Amino acid sequence: YIGVLGMIKQIFIILMAVGLIVISFTTTSSFAKETNSKETAKQSIQYIDKAISDMKKEDLDGANQSFQLFKQEWTQMKADIQKDSLYAHGKIEREIAALSIALLNEDKQKAEESLESLKSFLNQYSKGQLTDKPQSDKEISLSSYVKLLENTKKTLESKDVAKGKAQVQELTSQWLSVEGNVVGKSQTVYNNSERRLVELDSSLSNPKEVNKSIEIIDKMIIDLKPLVNTSYSMWDAALIPIREGVEALLVIGALLAITKKGPSAKGNRWVWGGASLGILCSLIIGFLVTYVLNSATFGQNNFLINGFSGVVASLMLLYVSYWLHSNSNVEKWNKFINGKTAQALSNGKMFSFAILAFLAILREGIETVLFLIGMASQMSSSQLILGIAIGFGVLIAIGIFMLKIGIKLPLKPFFFISSIIVFYMCLKFMGSGVHSLQLSGIVPSLSTNVIPTIDVLSVYPSWYSTLPQLLIIGFALSILIVQKRKQNNKNNTNQKKQGVI
Q1: What is the 3-state secondary structure (H, E, C) of 173-221?
Q2: Handedness of CA 293, 294, 299, 300 (dihedral sign)
Q3: CA 192 to chain CA centroid, nearest Å
Q4: How far apart are CA 82 and CA 86, in angstroms?
Q5: At which of 130, 165, 199 does a domain end?
Q6: Distances from the Cα of 172 to the Cα of 225, 251, 421, 447, angstroms
Q7: Which residues of 446-460 are buried (b: 16+ CB within 10 A; e: fewer)?
Q8: How many Cα atoms sit within 13 Å of 96 on the Cβ side?
Q9: 199 and 74 fall within a common domain
Q10: Any idea what DSSP says for residue 34?
Q11: What is the largest CA-CA distance in the chain?
Q12: CATH code at 83?
């Protein structure tokens, strides 16, 4: 009875956390009646254009005067924009604050960049692309995205870096609108495009690397253009859950295999509970993006969820990998499951296993749902449903096979294989997690030519994502070295005792 109450309590805590996640997205939604705020915002761009023109002439006073005229307009229209879209209101307010500071400090470069960003946000809002409510004209097509890439290239060729930065911000925010169409046809193009968005933001931080930025955009255009007029089949829909689900399946399979090797059968329920909750949250978020928000609005939140869940899951997997390795000795494991510490496996560790299963499913499940939503308008419902059924059917078959093999494996190879799988996922989640935080703008997008891109390990050409992976590898090697020395010392001690005897 006490155990059941404890489980209910833990599930209640998880549900509260889910509620907070859902609330964080729904609070950005506004169902107030739209006013003429979009038209007013469009008209106010004339002051921003005048300020940009003044800045290019290095007329700081003139730019400041134009900005003050805009602020007068903003005072009158911001209440309507706030009612229409909290998201747009927040974006514009933050850029106005950044611009005010730049003008106060007489930082001409930063002021011009902020003006271009402000103009971009006002343009997007006036076109209905920066509001919370989903309408057909808010989602851009892949052909429109390619056109935006071409316009950004022209801007950079004209050496207008400030405007180019604003356009790159729009490219990043609109990526979620088209990524489902891209990944359905080419995982390679999808991976390359996400990586190049980070590289593009990084190269624009240095005005001397404008030519490099143009080269990156050229590569993205070459990759994406052939996909503009492609159609999708049920096999494309089937590949989405298979591709995205295998990584989560490796984590869930390893956790289930561990619990089945342990002394308590209820551990399985914790893992399945966390996984089920992850699936439910993914479906809820997919519903919100489809019917409450829009892809561009959710883009930032998606990067944040993928980023933080990836980093947290990576650290938890690192602990699980260490725990598996430390119990890999058959004699030690038998002592473990027969001793008092077995209770820890059935209680504390099971809750952490549930959280890990939840995070693994959440970060992969959200992407799966959003990718399928992106493909939904490109194919018939029957083909889409059949493809999804085939994809999840294959995943279930793979999962059953993994579980059967894991249970039948002897302890020593089981621990070795499980440790390798968990450690691999630890590295991959860390790399992709930090990469997503770079796309969100929280982590700097600085890239380097020293580090190669290795998609299978989520290694990207940035020290921000690669250094944590190297630290994880260093930690693992140090543990192996320490344990090897302990084993050698133990063997030497035993040999000396036998010699004395």
Answers
A1: HHHHHHHHHHHCCCHHHHHHHHHHHHHHHHHCCCHHHHHHHHHHHHHHH
A2: negative
A3: 15
A4: 5
A5: 130
A6: 17, 30, 32, 16
A7: bbeeebebebeebbb
A8: 20
A9: no
A10: P
A11: 96
A12: 1.20.120
- Structural domain boundaries, residue 152: 140-228
Tell whether 105 and 41 lie within a shared domain: yes
- Same structural domain for residues 349 and 389? yes
Looking from the CA of 390 toward its CB, the CA atoms found within 13 Å total: 14
- Please tell me whether residues 244 and 198 are part of one structural domain: no
d(CA 479, CA 493): 21
Cα gap 233→254, rounded to integer Å = 32
Hey, which residues does 454 pair with through a beta bridge?
A: 459
Give ∠ CA 253-465-325 in degrees, rounded to 5.
40
CA dihedral sign, ordered 26, 197, 217, 230: negative
Claim to verify: residue 419 and residue 400 sit in the same structural domain: yes
Tell me if 394 is assigned to some domain: yes
Q: Based on the fold, state whether residues 274 and 370 are members of the same structural domain.
A: yes
Residue 30 lies in a domain: no
Structurally, the chain folds into a number of domains equal to 3
| Residue ranges, the chain, pLDDT below 70 | 1-35, 129-139, 261-267, 289-302, 325-349, 374, 377-378, 406-407, 409-412, 494-501
Domain boundary among 78, 99, 130: 130
Distance from the first to the final alpha carbon of the chain: 55
Please indicate, yes or no, if residue 289 is contained in any of the structural domains: yes
CA distance 501 to 498: 5
Question: 24 lies in a domain?
Answer: no
* Closest C-alpha among 107, 118, 110, 127 to residue 67: 118
Rounded to whole angstroms, how far apart are CA atoms 445 and 427? 19
Backbone angles phi, psi at 459, to 5 degrees: -95, 125
- pLDDT (0 to 100) of residue 354: 84
Q: Which residue's structure tokens are 């956390």?
A: 17
Please say whether the beta carbons of 298 and 345 come within 8 A: no
Residues 299 and 433 in one domain: yes
Question: What sign results for the dihedral spanned by CA atoms 151, 157, 162, 165?
Answer: positive
How far is the C-alpha of 442 from the C-alpha of 380, rounded, in Å? 38
Q: Are residues 162 and 279 in the same domain?
A: no
The identity of residue 100, as a single letter, is S
Distance of CA 392 to the CA centre of its chain: 22
Cα angle 264, 269, 271 (rounded to 5 degrees) comes to: 100
